[in-house]
């Protein structure tokens, strides 16, 4: 088995590197040569990568093929911490600061193996169907609503995110905004920036003793709950799941109960069909007169026309919006009616804090997310490990060691239908299956097996036999 580029026979005057590149260019199983490996070379990992479990000295680093062939596209200014991890693997990394218009995204996604995005880039089925080589998507953020997770799973594309690394940052922003709204600090600051001294106390309040109503008591909501209580606020929350309240926070039985009892309402639910316009005219009508509404979840969760009405009528004393139904691809002067029809009207409202989706935008959060998601991508690309995946079963195996030179790791993503394991094990059965794990999630199942005593020619045969099964979604053989 070739274990390094220099061991590969040189054909047609090509250098070993050129050869290894040419054999591994096609990553998609539907392509000739393709593969995820039968014809590929093994390259030693850079020192940066510690692998999974066990001591570094004994771990055998698996690579799907020559790392230089792995193309990674990172959009939306993914933090350098993540870019560095991927570059140190030797992958080809292109990093772009903004998201891309759909036509450019489709063009670029066609030949990448890995894509990293944040909340803005829409990876719909229409886009993903062009991604012929894509094996994995990294959402360098919490939300994954921007990705068609089902389409991706059915196409054998694994999706990872960072479930909580920016939760604290969002919670702290909420605390800052709650105080700013209660004291009208945004308006006073804007006035003074214009040269106007306007010292008022009317309609300005302490937050101590006021009730905060949190809708969605997950990672962000729970962090916020603790911070708010420490400032002397009473916390109630509404969630579709029964959850234990932190401190003295109390769960209420309905959204209306929360709206009726809160001085401040903050929204921390995911974007779902059920959360679209969760807060509209009828819900605002339930809120206390002179209360405040804050949304840092997704733009679809609040009906903005209803919010504008509530603000103009004085039902709401203030609001803070960090997210919007349509958000620009990058930085610049974009917040006008062409983007969202009510933008100018919003800009004219008093005691309304508008922020450009920065809830998770802190140095701490972005650098932690960069490391977390890039690590998950490397483990998936190099070793097939799906721990933390949001659309595939979570499957992992103890690592192979240097003492196991003729072992290969087989990954078989397949339709979750009866009889597949029997057929796969018939194929693997000519070898010793050292360890194996399989799990399913919905229509898709993921099998990982380490088999021993496999020679180079057998790898291709093994691969082809698995590819020929009708249940196949994607086969990868790593060695
Ligand atoms: N503004 C930002 O920069 C920023 C940063 C992080 C997260 N977010 C958004 O905030 C959302 C929440 O983040 P999180 O980490 O707390 O998510 P999470 O998954 O930990 O928590 C979400 C909670 O909402 C609950 N929920 C779901 N549907 C609900 C409904 N209809 N009514 C009430 N509760 C419901 C869930 O049961 C869960 O407890 C994310 O999905 C993301 O869209 C925004
Ligand atoms: O889903 C998230 O984590 C937040 O909405 C932040 O998204 P961003 O990384 O695009 O700022």
From TrEMBL:
InterPro entries: ACT-like_dom_sf, ACT_dom, D-2-hydroxyacid_DH, D-isomer_2_OHA_DH_cat_dom, D-isomer_DH_CS, D-isomer_DH_CS1, D-isomer_DH_NAD-bd, NAD(P)-bd_dom_sf. One of its GO terms (biological process) is L-serine biosynthetic process. CDD domains: ACT_3PGDH, PGDH_3. SUPFAM superfamilies: ACT-like (SSF55021), Formate/glycerate dehydrogenase catalytic domain-like (SSF52283), NAD(P)-binding Rossmann-fold domains (SSF51735). Its EC number is 1.1.1.399, 1.1.1.95. Pathway: Amino-acid biosynthesis; L-serine biosynthesis; L-serine from 3-phospho-D-glycerate: step 1/3. Keywords: Amino-acid biosynthesis, NAD, Oxidoreductase, Phosphoprotein, Serine biosynthesis. It catalyses: (R)-2-hydroxyglutarate + NAD(+) = 2-oxoglutarate + NADH + H(+); (2R)-3-phosphoglycerate + NAD(+) = 3-phosphooxypyruvate + NADH + H(+). It is an enzyme of class 1 (oxidoreductase). It comes from the Eukaryota. GO terms for molecular function: 2-oxoglutarate reductase activity; NAD binding; phosphoglycerate dehydrogenase activity. Residues 409-479 form the ACT domain. Residues 1-57 are annotated as: Disordered. Residues 12-34 have a biased composition (Polar residues). Catalyzes the reversible oxidation of 3-phospho-D-glycerate to 3-phosphonooxypyruvate, the first step of the phosphorylated L-serine biosynthesis pathway. Also catalyzes the reversible oxidation of 2-hydroxyglutarate to 2-oxoglutarate. Belongs to the D-isomer specific 2-hydroxyacid dehydrogenase family. This is 2-oxoglutarate reductase. The lineage of its organism: Eukaryota, Fungi, Dikarya, Ascomycota, Pezizomycotina.
């Amino acid at each position: 088995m070739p274990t390094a580029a220099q061991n590969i026979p040189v054909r047609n005057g090509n250098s070993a590197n050129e050869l290894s590149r040419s054999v591994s260019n096609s990553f998609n199983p539907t392509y000739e040569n393709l593969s995820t490996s039968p014809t590929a070379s093994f390259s030693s990992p850079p020192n940066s990568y510690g692998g999974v479990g066990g001591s570094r000295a004994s771990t055998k680093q698996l690579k799907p093929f020559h790392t230089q062939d792995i193309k990674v596209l990172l959009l939306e200014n993914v933090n350098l911490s993540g870019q560095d991890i991927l570059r140190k693997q030797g992958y080809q990394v292109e990093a772009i600061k903004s998201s891309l218009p759909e036509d450019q995204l489709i063009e670029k996604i066609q030949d990448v193996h890995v894509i990293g995005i944040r909340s803005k880039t829409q990876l719909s089925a229409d886009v993903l169907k062009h991604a012929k080589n894509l094996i994995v998507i990294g959402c360098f953020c919490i939300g994954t609503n921007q990705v068609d997770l089902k389409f991706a799973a059915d196409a054998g594309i694994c999706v990872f995110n960072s479930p909580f690394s920016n939760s604290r940052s969002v919670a702290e922003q909420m605390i800052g905004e709650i105080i700013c709204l209660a004291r009208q600090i945004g308006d006073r600051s804007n006035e003074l920036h214009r040269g106007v001294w306007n010292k008022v106390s009317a309609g300005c309040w302490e937050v101590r003793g006021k009730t905060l109503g949190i809708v969605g008591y997950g990672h962000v909501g729970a962090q916020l709950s603790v911070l708010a209580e420490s400032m002397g606020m009473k916390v109630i929350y509404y969630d579709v799941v029964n959850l234990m309240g932190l401190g003295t926070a109390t769960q209420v039985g309905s959204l209306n109960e929360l709206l009726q009892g809160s001085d401040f309402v903050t929204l921390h639910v995911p974007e779902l069909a059920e959360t679209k316009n969760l807060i509209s005219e009828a819900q605002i009508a339930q809120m206390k007169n002179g209360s405040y509404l804050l949304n840092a979840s997704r733009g679809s969760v609040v009906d903005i026309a209803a919010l504008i009405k509530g603000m103009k009528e004085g039902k709401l004393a203030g609001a803070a919006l960090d997210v919007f139904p349509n958000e620009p691809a990058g930085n610049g002067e974009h917040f006008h009616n062409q983007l969202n029809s009510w933008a100018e009207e919003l800009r004219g409202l008093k005691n309304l804090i508008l922020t450009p989706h920065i809830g998770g935008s802190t140095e701490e959060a972005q650098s932690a997310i960069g490391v977390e998601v890039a690590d998950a991508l490397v483990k998936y690309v190099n070793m097939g490990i799906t721990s933390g995946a949001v659309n595939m079963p979570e499957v992992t195996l103890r690592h192979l060691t240097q003492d196991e030179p003729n072992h290969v790791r087989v990954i078989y993503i397949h339709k979750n239908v009866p009889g597949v394991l029997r057929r796969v094990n018939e194929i693997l059965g000519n070898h010793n299956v050292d360890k194996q794990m399989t799990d399913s999630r919905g229509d898709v199942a993921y099998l990982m097996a380490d088999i021993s005593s496999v020679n180079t020619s057998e790898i291709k045969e093994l691969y082809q036999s698995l590819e020929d099964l009708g249940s196949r979604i994607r086969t990868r053989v790593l060695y």
